[in-house]
Amino acid sequence: MDKEKELKNVVRERYARIAEQGKAENAASCCGATTPSNKVYNIMMDDYSGTQGYIEEADLGLGCGLPTQFAKIRKGDTVIDLGSGAGNDCFVARHETGAEGKVIGIDFTPAMINKARLNAEKLGFNNVEFREGDIDDMPVNDNVADVIVSNCVLNLVPDKKKVVQEIFRVLKPGGHFSISDIVLVGDLPNALKQDAEMYAGCVAGAIQKETYLQHIVQAGFKNITLQKEKTISIPDDILSKYLSPADVTDFNNGSTGIYSITVYAEKPGKSSAKPKVKLSDLQAADCNPKTGCC
């Protein structure tokens, strides 16, 4: 079995279990995959409780941002959510599109698809559909979506460049995405980088922030904007499962940063030329570059 298939199988197996865990357990761990911290209640997720369209029982506590808040969804839009889980972001998006719009959630874990479909049926949302499939090979035709959202999922896919290319393919000309994800600045210790739990926990599979943004540039997107950035801190009681006490101290005092970023970008219209974008031009308007926090 090649490395990419092996990693996908690890994520699929672990997220089948995570689908049955409670929100509090997931929020206190790294994306539900690690042992929960007894010191920190919420490691990555943002609070949805004040968001219109929020359905608490569809929130498994697995996100690292609020992409739907930044996604500029309009009435009647077709929206696709990548890695839709139990349907949380799909239901928020559905509130924005209204009954005249359409929302498609894509997830490759059958347990998540089943949970999301049950939630949609209970809510009577006939314009919300969940499809089982890989987000690097989406079960969607070309030029379908007005908007694509995703919350802490691309870091779980081995070939992130291919996912970005798929997003470009599936968006309509003039369409856009808003995606929250985990990225790195600096290198993780090998013990974290090579651990299957930390991969499923949205950490070991994260790539360098500059590389992540470069994939978006190379795919041909324009008007690329960092909408939000925040620092992610892994509690010591989780780190100590993988690192020695001295290594935990070194990691905490080192230069490696783990960040949640929310990125917005647009697919050019039919008459638009492929844009030229410099990474140095990208900066979140409301972020402090010294702390990484908004």
Features:
globular, alpha/beta, disordered C terminus, 11 helices, 294 residues, 32% helix
Describe the 3D structure:
It is a single chain. It contains eleven helices and seven strands. It is an alpha/beta fold. The protein has helices at residues 3-18, 23-27, 67-70, 88-97, 110-123, 160-170, 190-193, 196-200, 209-219, 236-239, 245-253; strands at 78-82, 102-107, 128-132, 145-151, 171-185, 222-231, 257-266. The chain has a single domain (3-281), classed as Rossmann fold (3-Layer(aba) Sandwich), CATH 3.40.50.150. The radius of gyration is 18 Å and the shape is globular. Helix content is 32%, strand content 20%. The protein has a seven-stranded mixed beta sheet. The chain starts with a helix and ends in a 28-residue tail after the last strand.
Topology:
Elements: H1 3-18, H2 23-27, H3 67-70, E1 78-82, H4 88-97, E2 102-107, H5 110-123, E3 128-132, E4 145-151, H6 160-170, E5 171-185, H7 190-193, H8 196-200, H9 209-219, E6 222-231, H10 236-239, H11 245-253, E7 257-266
Question: Care to give the gist of this entry?
Answer:
The protein is 32% helix and 20% strand. The protein has 294 residues and is α/β, with parallel strands linked by helices. Helix 6 runs parallel beside helix 9 (209-219).
